[in-house]
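User: Can you model how zinc ion sits in this protein?
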Amino acid sequence: MTTGYVWKDIFAWHQTGDGGAFLPARGLIQPGQLHAENAETKRRIHNLLEVSGILDGLHSIRDIAAATDEEILAVHDAAYIDHIKALSAENGGDAGELTPFGPGGYEIAALSAGGCLTAGRAVMRGEIDNAYVLNRPPGHHAEPDRGRGFCLLANGPIAVEALRREFGIGRVAFVDWDVHHGNGAQRIYYNDPTTLTISMHQHHYYPADTGAVDENGSGAGEGYNLNIPLHPGSGHGAYMHAFETVVIPALDRFRPELIVVLSGFDGGALDPLGRNMAYSTTFREMTRQVKSAAERHCQGRLLVLHEGGYSAAYAPFCGAAVVEELMGATDVIEDPFIPILEGIGMMDLQPHQAEAIARSAALVSRIEAP
Amino acid sequence: MTTGYVWKDIFAWHQTGDGGAFLPARGLIQPGQLHAENAETKRRIHNLLEVSGILDGLHSIRDIAAATDEEILAVHDAAYIDHIKALSAENGGDAGELTPFGPGGYEIAALSAGGCLTAGRAVMRGEIDNAYVLNRPPGHHAEPDRGRGFCLLANGPIAVEALRREFGIGRVAFVDWDVHHGNGAQRIYYNDPTTLTISMHQHHYYPADTGAVDENGSGAGEGYNLNIPLHPGSGHGAYMHAFETVVIPALDRFRPELIVVLSGFDGGALDPLGRNMAYSTTFREMTRQVKSAAERHCQGRLLVLHEGGYSAAYAPFCGAAVVEELMGATDVIEDPFIPILEGIGMMDLQPHQAEAIARSAALVSRIEAP
Amino acid sequence: MTTGYVWKDIFAWHQTGDGGAFLPARGLIQPGQLHAENAETKRRIHNLLEVSGILDGLHSIRDIAAATDEEILAVHDAAYIDHIKALSAENGGDAGELTPFGPGGYEIAALSAGGCLTAGRAVMRGEIDNAYVLNRPPGHHAEPDRGRGFCLLANGPIAVEALRREFGIGRVAFVDWDVHHGNGAQRIYYNDPTTLTISMHQHHYYPADTGAVDENGSGAGEGYNLNIPLHPGSGHGAYMHAFETVVIPALDRFRPELIVVLSGFDGGALDPLGRNMAYSTTFREMTRQVKSAAERHCQGRLLVLHEGGYSAAYAPFCGAAVVEELMGATDVIEDPFIPILEGIGMMDLQPHQAEAIARSAALVSRIEAP
Amino acid sequence: MTTGYVWKDIFAWHQTGDGGAFLPARGLIQPGQLHAENAETKRRIHNLLEVSGILDGLHSIRDIAAATDEEILAVHDAAYIDHIKALSAENGGDAGELTPFGPGGYEIAALSAGGCLTAGRAVMRGEIDNAYVLNRPPGHHAEPDRGRGFCLLANGPIAVEALRREFGIGRVAFVDWDVHHGNGAQRIYYNDPTTLTISMHQHHYYPADTGAVDENGSGAGEGYNLNIPLHPGSGHGAYMHAFETVVIPALDRFRPELIVVLSGFDGGALDPLGRNMAYSTTFREMTRQVKSAAERHCQGRLLVLHEGGYSAAYAPFCGAAVVEELMGATDVIEDPFIPILEGIGMMDLQPHQAEAIARSAALVSRIEAP
Ligand SMILES: [Zn+2]
Ligand SMILES: [Zn+2]
Ligand SMILES: [Zn+2]
Ligand SMILES: [Zn+2]
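Assistant: Here's the modeled complex, given as structure tokens:
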């Protein structure tokens, strides 16, 4: 089992500026703090992989190319790209909604998308079995015509559309376990039955206006967009139940030729933005199951792209767990937070959580086997 | 309406060291981050009070004395105090469980407790109507024989016991709205019918072994300890419901001569440790109600002591809301996070939350009117 | 002896952004570091004053007004002020050369200047004997038509010109011991024989094109601008020699009615920008001597305004020493760095340093006694 | 030309704790700041190498072994090693004088020394021509029986003694351009005529009691220890003059079989501890000259080990310049600080500096050609 891995130090140079959580420091928001989406939460994942020795078992892909204009324009509008390129060439700005970036930020974003594509090519060529791309900035909120929620470019769709052109892939499944709704892929593929988009997220959080169960795709794509809105406070039990009753059955019906996970760790129990209570075991187990689905349906072709996760203390252990599972590691590092986190009350599935998940499960049968 | 206020810069000098959330940086926990309980989360509350102009309307109590040995030993065991004094005189250490402190940390802790007592005296003497004490280190987890959960000394009980001796107060009510269980006051007053201890907290989080509904006091104190364990993910609605159906009715039965609020903001929607979704309006409204109860029962005598709250971005707005309500401010500052936070899904009372709260409400009638 | 003191938390909210020393983070300058001129270097001075107890002996002036347009336009060009006001109302920008500021930065700058003026008024009215204004942003590099070197407004001249109008002061002496050249006051008063401007600074550092010995004033002001360019590496001995052979003799000839010190601590031995080796004793002794001169000539009227100083570790001890001397404190706090700093080689006056200082001393006699 | 390079993320995990410059945060030294010798100053060098693309041209040595007990005990006393091992197994402590370290710090120190040795072996085997080891903690102040000045183990001597045993090297030259005195190698090799130890440093700074010109070796080693104490404030001119009149002539007489540079960047113009004014061009030029000497005498065998350097903003550009020269890069990155730094007054050689350097130059002839 060979797992590819992408990280570039320049991903840490993307500037989100001084912020109070996700708002810029101005007015009564005191300056002097990093924005929630800062470099540390990613750099420390990379550092743990190296210090723990996990990195030694990975196939590091060092040579990545930025996504080209053509690759980006397959997903985004030219006007939007021109706009953020122009800002990037000056002092940076906001790419749309809550998406600050600095001078040169466009180039980093294009490299972030390019890292996803490079890893995807290696998977498709069979050079590696699967990959973890620790890319930054993230991508799952970006829409064709604007940046949203810290995301400039739709990294996943940009990679997938290029891979489709290059390798003739048909059915692609996106599994988004970031705590926020995967609005980008939903919008891009809403009418497309060849792309299954599944998003597990905290009910009605961000974006505020998307992510409901009844957003199930439209036209030819009806049935191919699955939202699993989780009650805030959902823990390991709810995640497992959602995976077992919705995500995996949906994948098994859809039989994707490639699975792309949009992997945020902001569903973790110590995240400052999300309110859920996943912990490293949760992410480990979800990875195991989605990897197993990839093995059943598409020779293990699995691309995991980094999205949110704002606990610099805890995201590293979630990241390590996912990477270890991708590698099939048998001897795994110890997450020192587990003894406390696994004991939190209501970590297991609650009746009201099960009820909510059942509404999503009921839609799985609308997916047609190919 | 005169509201007292205590803050000393030295509270920010209490050292909790380098940490990953609440664990010390060692082993696989990378150094380079502040411990969750760091100075910034308090300093920024103070800074917002000053910059917004709120501070100008407060009665700042600058001259505070450290709690004396006698005052401290009324609550804590001598062996414990000797132990942490000795560590403090060297390089600091851990006061028990997850309670790091640095050289000189004991003196800061004694001043933190002393600040509470000084403010309490001013309230009892009628020099001020009520007070917010922005003390640090916090106190609500400290037990007679050990520090726990970032707390070295039981600030609230130390202040209350001294005030009882000095002013002959009888019935005192503690209302703890920190997201963690108020185990300290519960343990200290478990058999005492003259001290009503109420704690609203995330069900079964920290400490892991206390805070259940059926911990209702024992012996003479039976009925006088009320726990309101909230489902993780509880929002404004649950907090309001708990206040209206448990906290206020309990206070109205008990008719305290002094109310002490142990005010943590880690129930806030952006807290990295708690999983609840209170926001500034929640804390504002709880303050309004508890202040009203104080006016009904004890000439408004209300002492609010600072406990947890780990979002440096958001705790300031929660603190400002509480202080404004204590002051009876009619023109209040605008919390820039409200538009986003109040829109989070399931912010209102959920049926399963109401059910849990009802179990606590059922115990209110066990409190005897004096 | 009553010493006034000004500090407002909002001074710490002035945003200089992410920077590599004094350059903005862009290109190959990695983001993630505070700009050299950040809040910490000032806040920690204030914190030490409070924690050490020095603050208790000061007359804190809490109520300060921003400098008005009229007061500011007495020194600055209207076009420049309009320009930075406009930037401030948007996202901030750069006020000219190496002078970043954030949204609302103009208002903070006007308050910084206003703090100087408020303290100056209290000195002139005899309410206090002298004052330390811990203002931010600094002012000594600002020129009438542009911000330079982290300075937006010429705080000192703005205060002095208003005081002149309000109190009819004639001769004013500026003593600038910041490690950089006091180009602002030099330029503003270059032709004015009623304003003696003295600057001690590291030879030819910043601004690169001003500060030479032969810049001695012009026209009516000839002789009334004194530069003392110090060799990089100058220590306590050189500072003392410059004071004793240039600064004090010049003040004694000029007989000012008010002395304004532009007090930067970036001549300190641990400063990251300056290369000199002053330490707290140096600043203490200079304060003692300038205070003594003020007593001889102008009933002790002495206004000390904060300028540079970029060692968050060491500036606090320099600030405390200056404030203690202003107060005439007899029992002073211990600077823990002294044992190491006073032992640095070549801390005493070196022949080449004496030679350089002599060139400035030779110009003192050009000052006419009034 | 192949240049080896060593960096491990775990070097950034060495804990020097909370500090005010080089003193621990206690007493009146406010907590909340990183110690001067923190990870950032190294990590940002590595980051710039990667982001600029320089890293792509280096031979990264990823697989390094910690120095063994035997290798370490060839230089250090067993009692000292046992002492710091014991502290490391608990909570860390201070290795002697101003040398804090955390739990597990011994293991990191042994790896830091091991990285030097691994790179040295590759040089000796001809696998690479030369190497830059970005090791941490540093080593040049460590003495056989104690840690000093942030250094636990004498990385350079430990590597050299092992290389001598393994490869039979005779004459080794150490060139130490850190701004502090290279007391470790001086003490270890003071009587040894086969090891030439040269240190350029700020006169009489740290350690306070060593580094004078007349410390010229003793016994058989007389003449083989050269100190070049530089006036504080020495700039590019002084560094060049010292190199051309002392360092290079000494190397040319000694004809080493291996040259080890102890490369600190704290002689840089923005360093908070040193007072000198080297800049990237200075370090570039010194590297060029020492590399040329290595080519003349020992087939280019040159090992550059990282020592001090405390400007997180500027050390990266100094590091990049050294690495580029080692590689013989013809197209080098642009140091954005050069336009300002090269213009600082007295950057060129001053007469008093030349005079001081001449005293060291006079000793060169005592070195006997082999
Ligand atoms: Zn997210
Ligand atoms: Zn808490
Ligand atoms: Zn300056
Ligand atoms: Zn050094």
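A couple of observations from the model: The radius of gyration of chain C is 19 Å. The longest strand of chain C covers residues 195-202.
User: Helpful, thanks.
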